[in-house]
Amino acid sequence: MKRLTALLLLALFSMGTLSACNTIAGAGKDVQKAGEKVEETAEKASDGK
């Protein structure tokens, strides 16, 4: 019984960790896209467009 409980807890912890990685990776991509837009806007402003 203790072994089953330990395996269930390990499985839940692993799922939580893996889903958090996906969420953080998605947030990183969003921040990167926003940074690219800011960079493009800054380049346009410095070009006088």
TrEMBL record:
InterPro entries documented for this protein: Entericidin (IPR012556)
Alphabetical keyword list: Cell membrane, Lipoprotein, Membrane, Palmitate, Signal
Family: Belongs to the EcnA/EcnB lipoprotein family.
A GO term from the CC aspect: membrane
Name listed for the protein in its UniProt record: Entericidin A/B family lipoprotein
UniProt signal peptide: 1-20
GO BP, sorted A to Z: response to toxic substance
